[in-house]
C-alpha cells in the first residue's frame, strides 16, 4: 500500500525504488491505521446506535462512544497532517513529483479522503451542538467545547449533512481500498497466516 495519502511517483524514479521507512513515515503509517480503526468503529457504531431502543442506557453509551471517537479522529487528523508535512518535505525537497495522470488520480483521491476525514466529524459536531449545547462528551470524562451554537431550526439539516457526508466518505474509502487492492490482498494473506500460526501454537 502506498504511504498514507502520498503519491509515490517522482521524476527520478527509474526504476522505482522502494520507499525508505524513515521514522516520520513510520509515525504517519501508525496514525493511518489508528484512524482506520476509529472510522471502522464510527461506521459500525453509527449504523447500530440509531437502531437501538430509544432513551436507553445502551443507546446513551453508544452515542457517547461515537461522539468521543469523532473527537479523537479530529485530534489524530491534526497529528497526521503534521507528520504528513514532514514526510512530504523529506520526499520532495530534492525531487519534484512526476505529475502525470496516475499521480494526479492518486493525489485527488487522497485529497478528497482528507477533506472527508475533517468534514465527517465537523458535521457530527454541527448536529450535536445544534441539538443541544455541551452535547459532545469525551469518553465519559470531559465535554468538548461547542463549535456551533444550539439551533433547533437546523437540526434536520445537520442530520442530513452528517448522514450523506459520512456515507460519501465510506464510498471514497472503498475506492481507496480498490486502488490499493494488491496491498489489501497481501495484508489479507499475512493476516490469515498469522492467525493460522497462532491457532497451531
Structure description:
This protein is an all-alpha fold. It has a single domain (23-200), classed as Fumarate Reductase Cytochrome B subunit (Up-down Bundle). 69% of the residues lie in helices and 2% in strands. The protein is built from five helices and two strands. Strands 1-2 form a two-stranded antiparallel ribbon. Helix 1 (23-49) packs antiparallel against helix 2 and helix 3 (101-131) runs antiparallel to helix 4 (155-179). The longest helix is centred in the middle third of the chain and has 36 residues, at 57-92. The two termini are 30 Å apart. The model is unreliable at 1-6 and 9-20 (pLDDT under 50).
Q: Helices and strands in order, then pairings?
A:
Elements: H1 23-49, H2 57-92, H3 101-131, E1 137-138, E2 142-143, H4 155-179, H5 181-200
For the record, the CATH class is: Mainly Alpha
Question: If you compute it from the alpha carbons, what radius of gyration comes out, rounded to the nearest whole angstrom?
Answer: 20 Å
* Order of secondary-structure elements: HHHEEHH
Question: How many domain regions?
Answer: 1
CATH architecture heading: Up-down Bundle
Structural class, from helix and strand content?
mainly alpha
Q: What is the strand arrangement across the widest sheet? A: 1-2
Return residue spans where pLDDT drops below 50 for at least 5 consecutive residues: 1-6, 9-20
**What's the main sheet like?**
2 strands, antiparallel
CATH topology tier name:
Fumarate Reductase Cytochrome B subunit
Distance between the amino and carboxyl termini: 30 Å
Average pLDDT works out at 82
- The total count of helices amounts to 5
How many E-type strands? Answer: 2
